[in-house]
Amino acid sequence: MLEIITVNMFKGLFSLQKLHLQQNVIHTIQYFSFSDLAQLNNFQLWDNKLSTIFEDVFNTSNHPVALNQFVIGNNPLLNCDCQMLWLLEAVGDWIQMQYKSSTICNTPLKLHGISWENITRTDLFGHGMTLYITLY
Fold this sequence. Notes:
Blueprint: E1 4-5, E2 18-20, E3 28-29, E4 42-44, E5 69-71, E6 78-79, H1 85-90, E7 97-98, E8 105-107, H2 121-125
Parallel strand pairs: 1-3, 2-4, 4-5, 5-7, 6-8
């Protein structure tokens, strides 16, 4: 069973259109792992052990605009924090996310057990955050 998706695993597969990695035990996807997959339009990642999916796995400066089906349901360890904002904004824009109701937030505690389909931008950033900037 596949546990880690590495940066060179799909290198050079420019014409790949479907990638089905469901029902593994994937817990880590390294940055830029899918940056060569510009033709990818069907991506199945459901039923794995993913806690987060970083924006840079697709190298969004050249994101796969062809991606129209992205299935990540049944990854119950999802960290619903600001690092997942990119996905929230991409859904409906350039991604059609299937089975959002079976993608459940694990952290932070206030979002534990809530499905991704009910998450908002405010939820990911929280309330009462303070940003400190030091100028030199």
